[in-house]
Design goal:
binds iron/sulfur cluster, alpha/beta, globular, Rossmann fold, 5-stranded parallel β-sheet
Length: about 450
């Protein structure tokens, strides 16, 4: 194992204020179990899980309450014992609504019920377990990408015929401002991450491993060097220059191994790579060795308006209001509440939204950090074009969407936009370019889905 510097620098990128000092030194703290959890069926990318319990049921921690509902989907397990009070459509962090279980965790089962004991799933010895058993475990543990994308991990770890993983890349960049959850995991759970890597290497047939960490996290680099010191095989820690969006999957592949993922629908596996967030890797280790499904995660609660910024280990389904209370509440009025980081996160209207498997951060920004800019006309300065790491003409896309010309945005390759926010960050006219891109992508996806549905209906006739 060796540590090397990245040899490849992608085009564009920006340098936002990182503000990580607020929570960086705060060890991971477990929140006491909230009295009510709101467990969404849509915690991952793809089809929401199908709810298989009903109001009045008593459920046990780890029980499947939502079945996987398609190839790109994962199951949902309850993160605590409790009584299902109701099943309702609830708002998620990105704005959409999905079925959610409202769970009363203070309720006791009726009659005599034996206390739950032992692991939820049978622990496996990864050295003797077959590749298929390990893959099945990742699937039944309900694991999806915890960096934010939520892609089902068992699908990623099972390349289609004809594709082979040559590089397993561990994403420890955490380039989003304020967020320190992955950083603390690397400091506090490095041996678990190493175990997860060994398991994934076995599933993927022994690829080389690259552990990508930005240069501004020397303690994390040290912790990973110690944990991986005696590992066999082709393993390198690649120190990346500090540049947003270094944590983007495509940019990390380029920065670590110099390969370029072509335009969608191409995927990292098309260039022989699989990228996984360090939290996901630790979750795989827990699922295999301890039989513990993905029921909780670390979320950074930070921003100048929260009394005590922390890295909180909380059950999936914890309400933001409970996270805020655990962090001492608000020390000044909150001008903006953001789910995720300031670059790619979503401003949310209420703290009654709950965490999912992908909730990396919750930011409480005071007035001094939540400027209310007035968007102006484009002055053709080209800064957004220089900042775009995907080589897009962001100004052109924004102008097209503004005039409802979605076809024009599509022709300008808006579907390759990774919604990183670098263009909006750079724009002196404060134009909401990223939102324009999101709008165009949503409308194109809706059109494609409608065309597919129409074709399927015609085929049935
Ligand atoms: S949000 Fe899209 S258009 Fe803007 S910089 Fe990022 S990739 Fe480029
Ligand atoms: S940065 Fe803003 S003002 Fe400059 S070209 Fe891009 S959209 Fe126009």
């Amino acid at each position: 194992m060796k540590t090397v510097k990245s040899q490849f620098k992608f085009k564009g990128g920006v340098h936002p204020d990182y503000n990580k000092e607020l929570a960086r030194e705060q060890p991971i703290e477990k929140i006491p179990l909230p009295a009510e959890l709101v467990i969404s069926m849509s915690q991952h990318l793809g089809a929401p899980a199908k709810c298989v319990v009903k109001a009045g049921d008593f459920v046990r921690r780890g029980q499947v309450v939502g079945e996987k509902n398609g190839f790109i989907s994962v199951c949902v397990r309850t993160s605590a014992d409790g009584k299902v009070k109701a099943i309702e459509k609830r708002l998620g962090p990105a704005g959409g609504k999905a079925d959610a279980i409202i769970l009363d965790t203070t309720a006791k089962p009726e009659g005599e019920v034996a206390e739950a004991s032992g692991p939820i799933l049978e622990p496996l010895d990864w050295r003797t377990a077959s590749r298929e058993d390990l893959l099945k475990r990742v699937e039944e543990a309900g694991i999806c990408g915890m960096g934010g994308a939520g892609f089902p991990t068992n699908v990623k770890l099972n390349p289609p015929p004809g594709k082979r993983c040559e590089y397993l890349i561990l994403n420890g960049a955490e380039c989003e401002p304020y967020l320190t959850a992955d950083y603390r995991l690397m400091l506090e759970r490095a041996p678990r991450i190493r175990l997860g890597v060994e398991i994934m290497r076995k599933i993927l047939g022994g690829p080389a491993v690259r552990i990508a960490i930005e240069a501004n996290k020397p303690e994390a680099i040290k912790a990973m060097e110690t944990a991986f010191a005696d590992i066999d095989g082709n393993v390198e820690i690649v120190v990346l220059p500090v540049l947003y969006p270094q944590g983007s999957e495509k940019h990390q592949i380029f920065a670590t191994v110099g390969r370029v993922v072509p335009e969608p629908p191409a995927l990292p596996i098309d260039v022989g790579c699989v990228v996984e967030n360090v939290g996901t890797v630790a979750a795989i280790a827990d699922a295999v060795e301890l039989g513990e499904p993905l029921l909780e995660r670390v979320t950074t609660v930070s921003g100048g308006a929260v009394a005590q910024p922390k890295n909180v280990l909380a059950p999936c389904g914890t309400k933001y209001s409970d996270l805020i209370a655990f962090c001492g509440g608000e020390k000044e009025p909150v001008a903006k509440l953001i789910s995720g980081g300031t670059m790619m996160g979503f401003a949310v209207s209420t703290p009654e939204i709950s965490t999912t498997k992908t909730t990396s951060g919750l930011l409480l920004l005071p007035n001094s950090k939540a400027y209310q800019y007035v968007s102006q006309a484009c002055i053709n300065c080209g800064r957004c074009v220089r900042a775009c790491p995907m080589n897009l003409n962001a100004a052109e896309i924004a102008k097209a969407v503004e005039s409802d010309d979605i076809k024009g945005a599509e022709d300008a390759h808006v579907m390759t936009c990774i919604e990183c926010g670098a263009c909006s960050f750079s724009c002196p006219a404060y134009r909401p370019i990223t939102q324009f891109c999101r709008r165009a992508k949503n409308s194109i996806r809706a059109r494609i889905a409608a065309e597919k549905a129409k074709a399927a209906a015609a085929a049935k006739k």
